[in-house]
Structure formats: C-alpha cells, structure tokens
C-alpha cells in the first residue's frame, strides 16, 4: 500500500482545511505568522503535486520511501502545532471572559515572546525547505491522476465454472434461483438481482453458479460482463462488450447512438439474462443510460449484479433489498482449504491436523478466497513442519503486501482504492483496533472526531452526524460487518490487515512485534496504539512520545504503574483506560491519576470506565478540548472537580458514579449533547436550574 496516497494527500487537505478556518486565520494574523503560513501552503502545494509520482517510485526507490516517511511525520507535526494554536485561541477567549480588563496586546506580546513557539515555526519552515529540495534531487515530477500501481489490476471474470462443486453455498444458490425464476409484477420488463458482500466472499462464484444452472437455459441471450475495471463507468465500452458477447463478433460500431440501437435490436422481445460482475457505479444518470436498450426485452428478463456497495443497489433498484452473501462456516471454510491443499494427498498422514484446522480457521475467518489461496500456497509444500512454520508466521501480512500470491491483495485493495479520500483516512484508523474487536458506531465516530478526521460541512451539519454518514458509507461498502451482538460491529481479520497496511508504521498493537532494526525511530513514528492487556512490553514504549490514540488499556490487570506513564504522552487525543466490568475485586489497588493530566491539551476522548479511582485531578478542568468523558461505573467517585473550562464537552457518562452533586461550572457546557444522568445537590449551583443552559 502506498503511503503517499493513504496519508499525505489526505493530511495536506486537512492542513488546508484547518487554515481556512476564519477563527484560526484571525489568530494567526494577530500572531504575526500568517505570512509564514502562506509560505507553508505554497510549498506543501508543490509537494502535493508530486505525490502520485512518489507513490509509484517508493516501491523501488528507498530514498523516495524515506522522503515520504519524513513528509508523513511532518504532516502529523504540523497538525499538532495547528491544534496547539487553536487551543491557545480558545484559552484566550476564556481568559478574556474571566478577566475582561486584560489587554489583547499584552497577551499576544507574551505569546509571541515564547521561544518555543518561534522554534516550532522555524523548524517547520526548514523541514519544508528540505523536503522541497529533496523532491528536486529525487527527480519527482507532477503527473496527473493515479499510476499503474495505484489501483490493483485484476483479470476480468468469466462465466466459465472454476469448480465442479461450490462448497457451503447451496442455500444461497437456491434463493438466487428462486429470485431469478419467480414472476414479479413490475412496469419494467426486467428485474435486477443484486448480490452483495465483501471482496473475496464468493459473489462472483454464486453468480456463475446461477448463470450456468440448467434452470437458466430458457434465457436467450445470456451475457456475462465484468465491469470492475471501468473506473469511470464507460457505458460505451460496456455496450460493446455486451454486443460482442451476443454476436460473437468484434464490434465496429462507431457512434453511441448506433451502439444503443444495435444492442436494442439484439434484445428486443427476448428474455435475456445479463450478469454485470463487480459493479461500482453509484451514479443514477449512468444507470438510466445503460439500461435503456434493455427496456425492449421480454418480460421475465433478469440482470444479476455483484457489488460490494449497497449504494449501487439503491441506485439501480431504488431500495437496498439484495441477497447478502455471508462468511462461510468454519467447517465449510476448512473444506475449501482442504480441497486445494490436500488434493491427491493422504490427509491422514498429517499428525497435527487439528492444530492446522484451528490455524486455518483463524487465518481465513470464513472468507472462501482466503481459504482457497492459503490451500494453494501450502499444496506444494510436502513437509508438515514447514506447514506449521507458515501458519505460525506473519506470511499472511506478506501476502497482503504482495501481488505474487494470488488474488487476495487485488480483491481487498480494490475496496480500499475505491474509497474517497475522507473515507480512506477513517477506514485506515480502524487498524488501531485489536483483531476481532467489537465496536459501536457512536464510539468510532467520536474517535474520528477526536482525531480530526471528519470534514466540516458547508451546510452546518454537526460533525457527529457527518461521521454517522461516513460510518454508514463504510458499512454499505462491506468494510464493516454486524457482529453476533447486533448493537456492535466487527472488521474481518483480512480487512483489518488491509487497514493496518494502509496505516503503515503509525499504528501498532501491543501484541505485535516491531519488525525493524531501529526500534527507537520506529517508536517515534507510532501514533495509534491498542493494548488488550498491559505487559512488560509496554515499558519499552517510553520513547513513543507521539501517541495520539491509546485504546483498550486494561491497567487494572497489570503490575505496571500506568498512570505514571501518562505525562509522557502529551499529544494524546483518545485515551481509553478500562477494566473488565466483571473483574472489579476489592484487592485491586485504587488508582490515582496524576495532576499532569491537565497538560494533555490535545485530549478529546477520555474513557475511565470501571476504573477504581476516587476522584479526578483538579487539572482536569484544563482539558479545554475534551469532547467525551466516560466515567461509567467509577463507583468510588463522589465528587468531581470544577469543570467550567470544558467548553467543548459533548458527552458525559456518569452512570454508576456515586456523585453527591454535579461539578461546578457545568453551565458553560454549551455543546453538550449527552448527559447520562443529573444529580441534584444541596449547593444551589448544582440545582435543576443549570439544565436551562442546555
């Protein structure tokens, strides 16, 4: 996966969007650095112009890869600095509200005398200069659009059956045949049958099974067209492909009108069956044009569409009714694997068969393409010990990083490359989640908000509402799946690996190993961390001072004094410190958060649910950017410190907290959207009158 496309174009766009903020522009102008900012924008635009070229060359040129890594690191650094400036702007507003007699001039004089701030500006300027100079030395050039490596190219699918029998899809096939053959009253002469599911799940295989079934023999003509490579949905190209399928001749028709007329003449009055495999078009106008010749077909005609995107279905049919293909059972997935791995071999000779079965289930996780690929990979290896080595290794990640092992990289990467840039950032962020992590929509949207991944709308929509649309879009594209717990979602393991590949070295799961010779440099690149259980490994992360996200920190189940590590991580935006709600023994020591938590000015999301703490530090009131505070089941807390400075607080969850009154200053929470409960206290400032401010 190319680091240029994933991060840099997106990050530079975030940078430009941030500088378009009127409030920040005013602050920068008054600070006297708006001229410098204009220079930054000019140089970044010059760099942005060569990203496509750099993206391709990084695959073979280590110097270009290092250049992109440096640019990525600078993009993070610039965003952090801009966030600090925006925070200072908010603090200035608070200061002038509390002390209206203070002079703006005095305030800015003290601010601009800050050597640290001047040093940051000079550092960014110097690094941008160096990157521009290196760009020229590396011979990077501006090229339009993507490159040959940007979008994985797949061989087009065909109607020829690859397997004598398809495993685990009998029910699916029966339902699709029933949909194809039943009479359904409609104004149209044909019906669309959508087959929807994630990449590699077997949509094409199912469509092929139905297309070649005896029950479809009465359809004439029968046409199979793979449209996956039509990035811009070239209707003329699709028409030609269909005509060539029907006539078995090369199509030499020149004009679009002649194409439509000739195609109509081939289907008029006929009961046709058309398969459009791997369709991505969401444009209603394109679909209206494409279907027009087929309106002349006989009643009972069918168009079968395979797609990963429910939006395609709604474009074509006006609803999201479709046949959704589910993951295979472990037993069926094992059968697919065994068919390819053990063909013409005595399976009984494998002494460690149950171990192999468990590993295959873990690697493939119900995806038939993965089972087929892994089976093909191992079928040529005769030694059982070598099988164990492969199944225990990181080879699955290597497969996703390479195109030489088959279709998996192309199939899955296509889902990623088809995403618009704003969704690429949000999807890649999910690499932070541990494997099989169950998440809910609201939390993920709040994480995205905390990381600044949601773009403001010109229609003044709330960021959370926009984030909800992002989530629904990724769900409709089969990148998220409903879990067995219907209120949560999961990401398939291979899709998770794809996100990890997109996020690159900036994301790390504590259970993973750092595959590098320079651990110190690798640690500094990490921005997002997930920790299922703290271990001694965590102590090795003390150099990773650039963390933005720390998820699933179970600090109760460890002897490590986690709170004392917190002062190192001043750039955190998301901190989720939790313990298992079923494990709250009295023997667990009470945890005290350090007062230095108030220095974590970037913090937006703080989850301390189920943690054994008695209070929050007074400095919590300094977390001016905090948007979410989760204190669910922190049963030992009776009182919260004053929190009048938390002007950006959107959500406060104090369920299961034994408060005697609400915190002072809550009347300032003008952005509050969720308050789990309200405790009426004796103090008049903790009375119900406070609620009128919301």
Structure description:
By secondary structure, the protein is of the alpha/beta class. It folds into 5 domains: 3-137; 170-324, P-loop containing nucleotide triphosphate hydrolases (Rossmann fold); 330-408, no CATH class; 419-499, Arc Repressor Mutant, subunit A (Orthogonal Bundle); 510-693, Leucine-rich repeat, LRR (right-handed beta-alpha superhelix) (Alpha-Beta Horseshoe). The chain has 24 helices and 15 strands. The strands form 3 sheets. Strands 8-9-10-11-12-13-14-15 form an 8-stranded parallel β-sheet, covered by helices on one side. Strands 2-3-4-1-5 form a 5-stranded parallel β-sheet, with helices on both faces.
What's this entry about, in short?
With 694 residues, the chain is of the alpha/beta class. It is 42% helix and 8% strand. The chain has helices at residues 3-19, 22-31, 34-48, 51-57, 62-98, 104-112, 115-137, 170-181, 203-211, 235-247, 256-267, 284-291, 310-317, 330-341, 353-364, 368-378, 384-392, 395-400, 408-417, 421-429, 441-450, 463-476, 493-503, 519-525, and strands spanning 190-196, 222-226, 273-277, 301-307, 323-324, 481-482, 489-490, 507-509, 528-530, 549-553, 574-577, 605-607, 628-630, 651-653, 674-675.
């Amino acid at each position: 996966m190319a680091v240029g496309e994933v991060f840099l174009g997106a990050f530079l766009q975030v940078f430009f969007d941030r500088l378009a903020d009127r409030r920040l522009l005013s602050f920068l102008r008054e600070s006297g650095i708006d001229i410098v900012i204009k220079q930054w924008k000019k140089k970044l635009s010059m760099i942005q112009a060569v990203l496509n070229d750099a993206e391709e060359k990084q695959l073979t040129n280590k110097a270009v890869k290092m250049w992109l890594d440096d640019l990525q690191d600078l993009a993070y650094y610039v965003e952090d600095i801009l966030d600090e400036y925006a925070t200072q702007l908010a603090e200035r507003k608070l200061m002038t509200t509390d002390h209206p007699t203070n002079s703006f001039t005095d305030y800015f004089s003290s601010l601009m005398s800050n050597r640290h701030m001047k040093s940051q500006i000079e550092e960014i300027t110097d690094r941008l200069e160096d990157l521009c100079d290196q760009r020229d030395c590396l011979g990077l050039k501006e090229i339009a659009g993507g490159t040959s490596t940007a979008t994985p190219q797949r061989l087009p699918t065909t109607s020829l059956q690859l397997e004598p029998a398809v495993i685990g899809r009998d029910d699916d096939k029966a339902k699709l045949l029933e949909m194809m053959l039943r009479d359904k009253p409609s104004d149209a002469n044909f019906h669309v049958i959508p087959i929807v599911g994630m990449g590699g799940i077997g949509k094409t295989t199912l469509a092929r099974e139905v297309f070649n079934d005896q029950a479809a023999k009465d359809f004439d003509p029968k046409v199979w067209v793979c449209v996956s490579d039509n990035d811009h949905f070239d209707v003329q190209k699709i028409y030609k492909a269909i005509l060539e399928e029907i006539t078995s001749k090369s199509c030499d028709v020149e004009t679009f009108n002649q194409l439509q007329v000739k195609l109509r003449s081939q289907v008029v009055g006929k009961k046709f069956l058309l398969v459009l495999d791997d369709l991505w078009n969401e444009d209603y106008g394109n679909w209206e044009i494409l279907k027009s010749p087929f309106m002349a077909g006989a009643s009972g005609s069918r168009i079968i569409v395979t797609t990963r995107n429910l939006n395609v279905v709604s474009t074509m049919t006006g609803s999201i009714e479709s046949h959704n293909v589910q993951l295979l059972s472990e037993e069926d997935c094992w059968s697919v694997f065994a068919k390819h791995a053990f063909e013409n071999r005595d399976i009984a000779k494998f002494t460690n068969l149950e171990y192999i079965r468990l590993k295959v289930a873990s690697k493939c996780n119900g995806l038939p393409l993965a089972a087929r690929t892994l089976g093909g990979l191992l079928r040529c290896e005769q030694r059982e010990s070598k099988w164990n080595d492969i199944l225990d290794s990181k080879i699955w990640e290597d497969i996703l990083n390479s195109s030489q092992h088959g279709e998996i990289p192309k199939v899955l990467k296509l889902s990623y490359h088809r995403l618009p840039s704003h969704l690429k950032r949000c999807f890649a962020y999910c690499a932070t989640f541990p494997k099989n992590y169950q998440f809910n929509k609201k939390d993920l949207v709040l994480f995205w908000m905390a990381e600044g991944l949601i773009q403001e709308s010109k229609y003044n929509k709330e960021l959370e509402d926009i984030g909800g649309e992002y989530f629904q879009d990724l769900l409709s594209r089969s990148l998220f799946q409903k879990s067995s717990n219907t209120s949560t979602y999961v990401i398939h393991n291979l899709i998770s690996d794809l996100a990890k590949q997109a996020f690159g070295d900036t994301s790390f799961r504590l259970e993973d190993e750092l595959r590098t010779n320079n651990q110190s440099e690798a640690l500094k690149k990490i921005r997002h961390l997930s920790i299922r259980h703290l271990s001694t490994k965590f102590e090795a992360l003390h150099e990773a001072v650039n963390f933005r996200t720390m998820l699933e920190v179970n600090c109760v189940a460890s002897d490590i004094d986690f709170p004392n590590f917190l002062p190192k991580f001043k750039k955190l935006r998301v901190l989720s410190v939790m313990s298992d709600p079923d494990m709250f023994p009295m023997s667990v020591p009470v945890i005290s958060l350090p007062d230095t938590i108030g220095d974590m000015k970037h913090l937006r999301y703080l989850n301390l649910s189920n943690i054994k703490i008695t209070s929050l530090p007074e400095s919590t009131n300094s977390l001016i950017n905090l948007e979410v505070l989760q204190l669910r089941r922190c049963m030992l807390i009776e009182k919260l410190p004053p929190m009048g400075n938390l002007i950006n607080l959107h959500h406060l969850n104090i369920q299961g907290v034994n408060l005697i009154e609400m915190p002072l200053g809550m009347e300032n929470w003008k952005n509050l959207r969720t308050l789990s409960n309200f405790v009426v206290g004796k103090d008049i400032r903790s009375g119900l009158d406070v609620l009128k401010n919301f």
